Structures are given as C-alpha cells and as structure tokens.
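Entries read chain and fold; for instance:
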Amino acid sequence: MTDPIFGRLHWTSTPFHEFFTTPGMSTAVAAGAALAVIIGVAALLWLLTRYRLWGILWRNWLTSTDHKKIGIMYIVLALVMLARGVIEGVVMRAHQATALGDGFLSADHFAQLFSTHGTIMILFVAMPLLTGLINYVVPLQIGARDMAFPVMNQVSLGLTATGAALIMISLVVGRFETGGWSAYPSYTGAIFSPDVGPDYWIWAVTLSGIGSMLSGINFAVTIYKLRAPGMHLMRMPLFTWTALCTAIMMVYAMPPLTVSALMLALDRYLDFHFFTNDLGSNMMNYANIFWMFGHPEVYIVVLPAYGVFSEISATYAAKRLYGYSSLVIATMAIAIISFTVWLHHFFTMGQSANVNAVFGIATMIIAVPTGVKVYDWMATLYRGRVRITAPMIYLTGFFILFMAGGLTGVILANPTIDFQVHNSLFLVAHFHNVLIPGTLFGMLAGIHYWFPKAFGFRLDERLARRAAWLWIIGFSLTFFPLYWLGLLGMPRRSASFTDPAFLPWMWVALSGAFIVLAAVATMLQMGWVSIRDRARLAVPIGDPWDGRTLEWSVAAPPPEWNFSATPQVHALDAFAVEKAAGRPYQPAAEYADVEMANNTALGMTLCIATTVMAFGLVWRIWWLALLGALAVVIAMTVRGFRTNTVRIIPAEELAQAHRDWLDEVARSHAVTRDQEISPHNRGLAAADNR
C-alpha cells in the first residue's frame, strides 16, 4: 500500500540513509555521488544568483528558438553527462581492479553503475552531442535561417533534458535499474525489481526518445525544404548528408524504443504480461523490439561523426573531398542496412542456425560501405597540405582504433565465434572500440572545428591536442586489455572474479581509465584557458580554417538570422568556389525583411512538467503525476491559441549589420595556413591558401 501523499517516497529513499545505517565503501561511494550532485546544483544556483544571470539565461537561452543556441545547449548537456559517465567508468574499473574475490562495491551497486553508464553514454551523451552539432551546423551549411520547426526544436531539447534530469535525480533519490542499458526483463520486471530503478529508466528513455524522434522529423524537413537556391542534393556538404540519413533513422528507430519501454511500463504498473515468465508472454519479444532500435542507434550516433571526418579531412588537407558520390552512396547504404542486422545482438538466444547465418552475413556486409568511407578520407588526405590540428589527431586515432573495432565486429558477425565470447569482456572491448573512436572522437573533433564559429574565438590548440592524445592513449589502455580478458574467460557485467590471471590486465585497464579522466580534466582546462584568452583567440571574420562550405562565409558568431541575404549556390563547396574566384564577402544585391520565431517558454515548461509527471509516476505519487500531465496539456493548449509567434527583422537592420561586418573584413589581415593557430588569425584566410 502506497501513501496517498508521498506514494513510495520516504525519507529513507536516499543513499545517505543507507550509508548511515550500513556504512561501508559501497554505500560511501553512493552517498558521495549524491552529495556531489547536490553540491553541483547548489553551486550553479548560487553562481546564477550571485552574478545576476537568471534574466540572461532565461531570455537569451532557455526560451530561445534559435537553432544555434539550442544546439549549444544540447552539447553542454551532453558534456555534463559525459563527466558523470566517465567518472562512473573509472569507478567500475577501480572496483574490478580490486574484485579478485570481492571488490569495494556491492554486486547490486556495480549493476546499477554499468546500467547508468551505458544509458548515459548512449542516450544522454552521444545523442545530445550529435543532435547539438546537427542543430548548429546544418542550417548554416544549407543556407537556411533556422530549423523548419523552431518551437518543436525547443520542445525536443526540453524532453531530452527531462530524461537527463531523471537520470541525475535517481542518483540522489532512490536507485537505478540493474538490467544494463538495454533494461532486459526479467531483471527489470516487477517481480525481480519491485523498486523504482526500472521506472526511472522507463520514463527517462521514453521522454528523451520522443524528443529524439521529433528532432529527426525536424532535421529531415529542414534539409528537404529549406536548402538555398541551387543547392540540390548532390551539392550538399557530406555532414548534411549524414545528418539527413541520421534524421530518417531517428524517425524510424526511436519508436521501437518508446514502444518497448511503454510495454515494460504496462507490465510493471498495470500487471500486463508482455515480458513476464507466465500467461503467454515472451521476453524475446522485448529483445527483438528493443534491438530494432538498438542497432540502427549504433549508426545514428556514428554517421554524424562520419560527416565530421568528411568535413575536417577536406578542410585540413585543403582539397576537395575525394569520392563525394561514393561517400553519399555509402552513407545511404549504411542507413538502410543498419535496419537489417539487429539480431546479431542475441545470436546466443536460441534462433535457428539459418536465421543467425542471414543476420551474420548482413552484419559483415555493412562493413563494406564503412570501408569505402575510410579509403575516401585517406585518399582526400593523400598529397594534401595536411595541418596536424586537434581534429586531425582525433581523425588519426579514429583510423587506427576504429579499424580494430570494425575488424572485431566482422569477427563477431560469425555466430559460432560470437557464441563463445558474447557474454565476455571481449564484446565490451568491441563496442567501446567502435563507439568511442567512431562517435566520441568525431564529436570532439567537430566541437573543436566549429567552436570558433559558435563563439567567435578558437579553442586553445595546445591543450586541445593534449586532450586528444590523452583520449587516444587512455582509451587504448582501458579497452584493449579487455579483449584479452574476454578470451581468458572473464564474463562481462561481473562484479567479482576468482582467477588471479585477470588481475594484471584489470590494473592496466584502470591506468587507462585514469588517463581518460585526465583527458576530461584537460578539456575543462582547455575551456577555461580559451575563455580567459578569448581576445587573443578571437576570429570575428568567421573563417579560421579556410573552410569550404557556407557556414564559414558568415561572421563568428553568426547573427541570429544567419545570412543577411539568401546565398545562391552554383557548385559543391560553394564558399571555396567563391574564394577561388576571388569574390567572397560581397554585399548583397538586395536585402529583404526576415521572419523569425519569437522566444517561447513552451520547451522549458514541458521540461519541468514532464519531469514532475515522470517523478510522480516513478514514486507512485499519482496526484503529482496528474499535476504534471495537466501542466503539459495546459501548456500545449495555451501555445495553440497564441498568435504572436513571429517577429520581422527589417531589411535595414540586416543591411547595416552586413556592412559593418564587411568593413571589419576589409580591415582584417589575411593569414596563411602556417599562421592558423597564431594570434594573427582573425578568421580571414589568405588567398594563396587556395
């Protein structure tokens, strides 16, 4: 029986109570993590109040419909969650280094850690990173002023933030589920886990999944309908192509995640029997539905990184991208084939040999278009004047590390081999070997590449390179030993082991984890130093890398309306063509009024309301859940009746802003590639660069 006011919530529902009643290292770690969240939130609120930033935050950011600000907020959210995900990874590696027979964490705590770690890194780090980059870059690359649906864009961010908030709340109040990031029944069923852990997972992934699906719709419509005149599909930059294919995959892949989570919710809340052990249910249905999302998801998070690598290989080699058409075809092939390989995630679960063989062959085939991309990038770099910057270090690390991960993927595509190592650390090494170099390195390279465009100053190159090398070295030391441990027979998700032969490799992996933690710390230092030295690193003209696509043709940071006049596109790499012809930075023949969406509090309102609703559902506080749901309905209804939704920016304002920027261009000194990381680089590339 639950309390009518507080549901299942009780003052004992925090890790602090558990620490004081049963003190130990495991409960101390849990209580310390909860305390860190509380202190972090309190410090943030104090800083916002101390420096009177609430008004700026509300007016300029939280209620903004500008795709650029929304993209930045997605990335900030992802980086915050990345910090937690990395720290959890270090704690897990530290535990396993001491787990010969026991370890300092309880088995239940360890299970919660690997479940939150996977959920965070895939759904609340990789997804917001790619969504943020696409949000920021794509409208600028295609000559658009904003996303097709600016308000829906804000709502998508709000729903994603709700999911992240629930994950963070679970650290302070209650607990998380123990069925892995995939939340497999029966681990997450009401009988095995009657606590609130699976409920936090259900509502976090359901709401964020809806947000991601809406983002996919928004991206696809924007690319289909808002391209500049002359930019037909085969003139789009490769990053935009990967964004389009990713958007289509998001539209079709996110609903299975939502459906599987809601079916699990029905099992837990209303005693349905979709995934239980009785009354005609079948837990394999969950595996099939979830992985119908899960494997396209792998390519959803990887394809945008491929787009980043395409952009930086062409820019930093000062060459046109080699094999553009083949890269487009390979991107589309990956998007299609990704929906045909989900069953390789459970070769060991009892399908027939024929079914396993079909999916094994499909899994091998999907490696072919990825290989095409790698060869095209290497051909782009061949005989180019390559500048070794931080993004190029990430690309080099990707070439080496991702190929190892891809080759082990082909090995695991053989069902007979997969059957032997599927539940070992070999598989853990493989998917980290694919996702970290393939996704995270690409996203970090993209952040470094487009950061000057977003903020008007470059990141400190010395610290950026140091962070890149630490990521590569730390990753290698952390995960390559896991291949050997898997072959030795170390099970994955195991809180302890009895074979002392595992121990030396566990310590190597722990040393790598600390280097990864140092990489994150170096990134924080890089951000601090870059902000401190922003005057020296300023690039107001907006083209610090001698870029080739339209986003580099406007100021840094760009104006709210992006382009003072709609660009006309006549070829691939439109801005590079203009620079080669000696006619960049020209005044427009005519300026016209621009219509932009007004700020709105809808996204923030829905974020708060859905968080309240989900928290009420988690703890069975039914009146609170109803209050949150009612707030959602009211907010949507009020928005539907609002008529003042757009504002007009007059042509005179656009013309004056453009003339002021062109005057600054005329006063600036162009720099060569050799001066790109010097204080002389104000964002204007010299003509001899081309």
